[in-house]
Automatic annotation (TrEMBL):
GO annotation terms (biological process): regulation of signal transduction
Gene Ontology MF terms: phosphatidylinositol-5-phosphate binding
Assigned keywords, A-Z: Cell membrane, Membrane
This protein's name: Uncharacterized protein
Keyword Membrane applies: yes
């Protein structure tokens, strides 16, 4: 793991975040498995939903990792780990209450949205979608309407190139349509 990533993940030194974006993409992706393990550890901490520093660290690291993966064209190498983090994030609530007792996106929802966006950039890549679609379909059962709406759009887009992958999930998709998600019919 690059030393700047390590300082950000392990010591929560936010002041190194700007420098991290100047590091070579290849240097960033050198030890992704440890980086993803550290991210999951932070995300699963009971204090994460209320810890703004940890939330910033996770957002910065995910932004940097996904940029490095995109720029190096290495999505096929890291899709499984990105999907694993997405699956981990989806185990947490996707909404939380703000000071006015209104439902807002939870910190976990923000990560899920970023990961979905990064993964579905590759909607025409069958190997990436084969890994992504089953986990993304879990988002359709979320209490977060915006996440459901965005995921529905992503799945509709992915259906263009991945009919066979989606066909194995037909019952799950149909049950979501029956529950009122008519956008999936597109």
């Amino acid at each position: 793991m690059h030393y700047l990533l390590s300082r950000l993940l392990h010591q929560r030194q936010l002041n190194v975040s700007a420098q991290l974006f100047n590091v070579s993409h290849y240097d960033v992706i050198t030890d992704m498995s440890n980086t993803f393990s550290s991210l999951k550890e932070i995300i699963n901490a009971p204090s994460y939903p209320s810890n703004k520093v940890d939330q910033s660290v996770v957002e910065i690291v995910i932004a940097r990792l996904t940029a490095a993966i995109r720029e190096t064209g290495s999505i096929e190498s890291y899709a499984a780990e990105l999907v694993d983090v997405l699956d981990e994030v989806l185990r947490h609530p996707m909404t939380s209450l703000n000071e006015k007792s209104q439902d807002v996106d939870s910190p976990h929802c923000k990560i899920a949205s970023d990961l979905l966006s990064s993964l579905f950039l590759h909607y025409s890549n069958k190997s990436v979608m084969t890994l992504t679609i089953p986990v993304a379909l879990k988002c359709l059962n979320s209490e977060n309407a915006e996440l459901v709406k965005n995921t529905t759009s992503y799945i509709s887009l992915a259906a263009i190139h991945n009919r066979k992958s989606l066909s194995s999930h037909a019952l799950q998709i149909i049950s979501n349509v029956v529950r009122g998600n008519y956008s999936l019919i597109q």
